[in-house]
Specification:
Blueprint: H1 9-15, E1 31-32, H2 39-61, H3 73-79, H4 81-90, E2 104-111, E3 115-125, E4 128-137, E5 144-149, H5 156-159, H6 172-178, E6 182-186, H7 200-210, H8 215-232, E7 237-243, H9 245-256, E8 262-266, H10 287-290, H11 293-297, E9 304-306, E10 316-318, E11 327-329, H12 334-347, E12 369-370, H13 376-405, H14 414-433, E13 446-450, E14 457-467, E15 470-479, E16 488-494, H15 501-505, H16 516-522, E17 526-530, H17 538-549, H18 555-571, E18 575-585, H19 587-594, E19 602-608, H20 614-619, H21 646-653, E20 658-663, H22 671-688, E21 695-700, H23 710-718
Parallel strand pairs: 1-13, 5-6, 5-7, 7-8, 8-9, 16-17, 16-18, 18-19, 19-20, 20-21
Antiparallel strand pairs: 2-3, 2-12, 3-4, 4-6, 10-11, 13-14, 14-15, 15-17
Helix pairs in contact: 2-17, 7-13, 8-9, 21-22
């Protein structure tokens, strides 16, 4: 049996596919495609295997980002400054915090012979505040203070033992207060589902992620604002301590801020290689590229790090079938924790220190007088609203932020313009889409004839190798009237969400495609309909989170697939390699904005039933069109709000022709947001570059579908081809 580049025998067994020799009709100069079964499903499984292997390899690849100097604690701190800064950036810490003299004391809620408990509020950034409890010792202690962060499903009052029914060993703030420390306890966002079936944490994460921020970063900022205050008081020893989600936040705060002398991480520390299995609000773009928990801990040491030996993590399960990303949090195996600690020791072998593994102590449970407790629900609503409003403010600021980001574009001439957008294409590829460094394999084309019941065209299924374990699949449709030696233009026709190449040729009843792959072939174009990887629901959506973990996206796979497809198409004797166009509907329109900027083989791009004010579409919590409320939990892309909306993506396509096809009754967005975003594109092409004839928008009286009128004329014009009229 021939050995194929993209699939080894082990994966074949896993996927349950067999290669069966059979006699088939195939495209000349290609091998026979003999696979049986659902090739689209096979593609998703192969992508999954590929990404899991990339995640596995990430541990060994991280060392290139680190240059630790162990000659002294001071030189060590300096040697990892860049890593600390990178970590702060990927968790969305960007806002400048507001200095304050002391928290606002709102009410006294409890008191005993050792401490008093007050409700407090303190500024963090913008109009965002933190709220919680301040526990002050009766006998002043100016040497030690601690910020204790509860799990997301606990309140400050519960971990102080003044409300709820937490067992004593979980009342961690109470234990430290009984030891005479000043204790500050911020409330954090809970996991309840107030917005349809989306947890509060995921709801805020969605908008923030699109805008280059993160709920984790916001809440770390609330902790660091407390550290700012303690520092002004001259506190000699500042500690942060947390359990569960609070453990994560304490851990990250300790890694970022060297003013924190001791970090206690309970119910969190473990291997992070399966972070993609965790809830969406744990998703950090590019985390595993540089950081596992051992690497994060290496930014805390040689300061004191405590990982209690007897603390289980919270158990959270988010099932499939809700609006949220499926996910789970489970207590890690003891061996997994120990392995990560051992990895930490290896990373910091040049330092003299040791992780503290003390057991959790119980507070004494001193009798406490409780007064009027704060309204925890009202407080939580305020905290939610403040962060949501901050996200919405960032959304309005995005236009100006992106304008500043794109300010190096030079439109004095087409030559100057094309030169000036090259760095932006690189940034888009590496920082937004994500780029694998692998070299494309030889295509090793395999084909077989496909009966489409049409005497005017001939169709073939095509499989091409891309990377090891990654292939491209699609349907090639060739007009039967091509003469010997003639070279025709190609239109790559891209399906939408849950679609298939068969959807676009008329073999499946997806009327909104109007069989545009076949129709264009009947008009005389060679067409190719690729299988993109947004199919099979949770199966493909989880690929996005596996990709995000290593600073990649779904398009990190689809871009090289299309590069290989267009390379191969251009090698065919009947194809004019300089006239290969992209035309995509819906998620295919989303592809039309992201793939052609990075695949120069595409000479033009048509975005159908998708173009709009994309950042608003993702980040708005006011608009009913927004993905903030919908089940497409994979759709959010890191920091588009500060970099590339659709007008900026179109800039990366320019000066190549670009067109938008828009149905008035398309539920993706209202006409006005489509027109608003397209006006920026029109201004670039017409006013600045003086190539207004290269861009068009067609509004038509119809729904979310191919219209196939103005776009077909656009193809004829810019591919310089006189297509045949069809009924």
């Amino acid at each position: 049996m021939k050995k194929y580049h993209f699939l080894n025998v082990g994966i074949l067994c896993f996927l349950g596919f067999a290669l069966q020799a059979q006699t088939v009709q195939l495209l000349p100069k290609t091998q026979s495609l003999t696979w049986q079964g659902d090739i689209a499903s096979m593609l998703i499984d192969s992508c999954d295997a590929f990404l899991l292997n990339e995640i596995k390899q990430s541990i060994n690849l991280r060392k290139k980002y680190w240059n630790r100097d162990f000659s002294s604690p001071e030189t060590y701190e300096k040697s990892i400054e860049k890593n600390r800064s990178s970590f702060a950036e990927i968790i969305g810490i960007r806002e400048k915090r507001i200095p304050f003299n002391s928290p606002d004391i709102l009410d006294k809620v409890a008191e005993n012979s050792i401490y008093r408990v007050n409700v407090v509020r303190w500024p963090v950034f913008g109009q965002v505040y933190s709220e919680g409890l301040l526990v002050s010792p009766i006998k002043a202690n100016t040497s030690e203070a601690v910020i204790v962060i509860p799990d997301a499903d606990q309140t400050p009052e519960e971990i102080m033992g003044i409300s709820g029914n937490l067992p004593l060993e979980m009342q961690r703030a109470r234990l430290l207060a009984e030891q005479g420390l000043t204790v500050l306890i911020p409330a954090i966002i809970n996991r309840e589902t107030a917005h349809k079936k989306i947890s509060n944490r995921e709801f805020l994460y969605r908008s923030a992620f699109e805008l280059g921020r993160h709920l984790i970063g916001y809440e770390v900022q609330k902790i660091l604002a407390g550290v700012d205050w303690f520092t002004t008081l001259g506190i000699e020893n500042i500690m942060v301590s947390g359990w569960g989600e609070g453990g994560l936040l304490a851990f990250y705060a300790g890694a970022i801020d060297i003013r924190i002398d001791e970090t206690v991480v309970a119910g969190y520390f473990a291997s992070r290689q399966n972070v993609w299995q965790e809830p969406a609000y744990r998703n950090i773009f590019g985390l595993l590229e540089q950081f596992g928990d051992a690497e994060i801990a290496s930014m805390i040491v040689p300061r004191k790090l405590t990982i209690p030996i007897d603390n289980d993590a919270p158990t959270i399960v988010i099932p499939s079938g809700t609006e949220s990303k499926p996910g789970r949090l489970v207590p890690p195996e003891t061996k997994e924790v120990e392995n990560e600690i051992n990895r930490l020791y290896k990373l910091t072998s040049g330092l003299a220190w040791k992780v503290s593994r003390q057991k959790t102590q119980k507070p004494k449970g001193i009798k406490t007088t409780i007064f009027q407790l704060p309204d925890a629900n009202a407080r939580h609503i305020r905290l939610m609203n403040e962060l949501d409003k901050h996200n919405q403010w960032l959304l309005t600021e995005g236009t100006y932020i992106r304008k500043a980001f794109m300010s190096d574009i030079n439109t004095e001439s087409l030559e100057a313009f094309e030169k000036s957008i090259k760095p932006y294409k690189t940034y888009f590829a590496e920082e937004i889409i994500g780029k694998f460094d692998h070299t494309l394999l030889p295509p090793n084309a395999r084909t077989r004839k496909l009966d489409v019941g049409n005497d005017e065209v001939t169709a073939y299924e095509v499989v091409l190798d891309v990377f090891e374990n990654i292939f491209a699949y699609g349907i090639l449709v060739i007009p039967n009237d091509i003469k010997s030696g003639e070279k025709r233009p190609v239109v790559v026709c891209q399906h939408g969400l849950e679609g298939r190449p068969q959807s676009t040729i008329g073999q499946q009843d997806y009327h909104y495609y109007k069989a545009f792959t076949t129709t264009l072939a009947e008009k005389g174009y060679i067409t190719f309909a690729p299988q993109n990887i947004y199919i099979f629901g949770d199966r493909f959506r989880m690929l996005q989170f596996k990709s995000n973990a290593i600073k990649k996206t779904l398009f990190s796979i689809m871009v090289p697939q299309h590069q290989q497809i267009t390379n191969w198409l251009g090698s065919l004797g009947m194809v004019d390699k300089d006239r290969i166009a992209f035309y995509g509907l819906s998620y295919g329109g989303k592809s039309a904005m992201r793939i052609p900027p990075l695949v120069d083989n595409y000479c033009l791009s048509i975005c159908s039933a998708d173009f709009n004010e994309w950042v608003w579409k993702n980040a708005s919590t006011r608009s009913p069109y927004s993905y903030a409320f919908m089940s497409e939990y994979e759709i959010f892309e890191w920091n588009l709000g500060g970099t590339f909306n659709y007008a900026e993506m179109a800039t990366l396509i320019a000066p190549r022709p670009f067109m938008v096809e828009r149905g008035h009754f398309d539920g993706v967005a209202p006409d006005e947001t489509v027109a608003y975003e397209y006006a920026k594109v029109r201004y670039l092409y017409n006013a600045l570059l003086k190539i207004g004839d290269r861009t068009e928008i067609e509004f038509f009286d119809g729904p979310h579908s191919i219209n196939g009128k103005g776009t077909y004329e656009f193809l004829d014009k810019h591919l310089k081809f006189k297509s045949k009229k069809t009924d």
